[in-house]
Recover the amino acids of this structure.
């Protein structure tokens, strides 16, 4: 059973469940329980200027290499400790910014830990925040350690065997988040392709309007009641497409091992060619 931030609390915040605008964040930045977390591969963008009060979380702290497969989930205990250290607790409304793939990875991680209504991405990230005229800061505020109660949802992360068993299952759609050229070179049989970057537009890039995203997913063969399983090369691009599918309301899982694992498995089928 999911342990979630109550929907009423999210409603009182006035936020979309998984996506907020810079204007919304500006109005609620000082609200109790709202925490901005900047996730990235390094501190360069954060140190150059970040949203006031935001905490930096290195991507490396929420991914590990396991059995030669990169970007896997660390243990629940490790994730719990890392996230608490930047102030994330059971009642924290986490607004995530930083590199889009890193931000989406934290979103997925919080889903996995059983907090699906706790996190939201900042649409357009820090770049849109700056473009809107809201200030940034270079001062780092010490984090107040949070108290997080994990309720792991292992069913959100599917294994290679699960993928093999569901390749022809009606109602399960595999979505490859890589560029079309990578998809054409070799993909999981029957998978469809939505390159994660095509779900955004503009400069700075923001998420496409919901209706356009729905058309995109329908064009990839995703029905209203289908279950979406995202994958890529090593689970990062798939994290963003996972976020988009969740934003659209699909029941969503991720094959975190992705092609890095799949191509190394003896007998694992590979299909090539461009999307239909």
């Amino acid at each position: 059973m999911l342990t979630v931030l109550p929907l009423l609390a999210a409603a009182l915040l006035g936020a979309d469940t998984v996506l907020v605008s810079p204007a919304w964040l500006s109005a609620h930045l000082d609200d109790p329980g709202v925490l901005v977390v900047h996730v990235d591969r390094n501190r360069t963008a954060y140190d150059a200027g970040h949203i006031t009060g935001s905490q930096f979380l290195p991507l490396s702290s929420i991914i590990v290499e396991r059995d030669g497969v990169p970007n896997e989930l660390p243990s629940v205990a490790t994730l719990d400790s890392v996230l608490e250290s930047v102030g994330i607790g059971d009642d924290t409304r986490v607004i995530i910014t930083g590199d889009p793939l890193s931000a989406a990875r934290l979103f997925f991680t919080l889903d996995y830990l059983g907090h699906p209504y706790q996190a939201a991405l900042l649409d357009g990230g820090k770049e849109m925040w700056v473009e809107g005229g809201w200030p940034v800061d270079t001062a780092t505020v010490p984090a107040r350690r949070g108290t997080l109660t994990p309720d792991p949802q292992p069913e959100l992360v599917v294994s290679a065997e699960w993928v093999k068993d569901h390749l022809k299952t009606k109602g399960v759609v595999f979505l490859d988040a890589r560029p079309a050229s990578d998809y054409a070179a070799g993909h999981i049989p029957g998978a469809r392709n939505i390159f994660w970057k095509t779900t955004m537009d503009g400069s700075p890039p923001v998420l496409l309007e919901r209706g356009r995203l729905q058309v995109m997913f329908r064009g990839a063969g995703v029905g209203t009641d289908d279950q979406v399983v995202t994958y890529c090369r090593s689970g990062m691009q798939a994290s963003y497409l996972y976020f988009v599918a969740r934003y659209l309301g699909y029941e969503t899982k991720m094959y975190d091992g992705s092609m890095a694992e799949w191509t190394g498995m003896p007998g694992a089928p590979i299909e090539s060619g461009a999307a239909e």
Notes: Residues 1-15 have pLDDT under 50 and may be disordered.
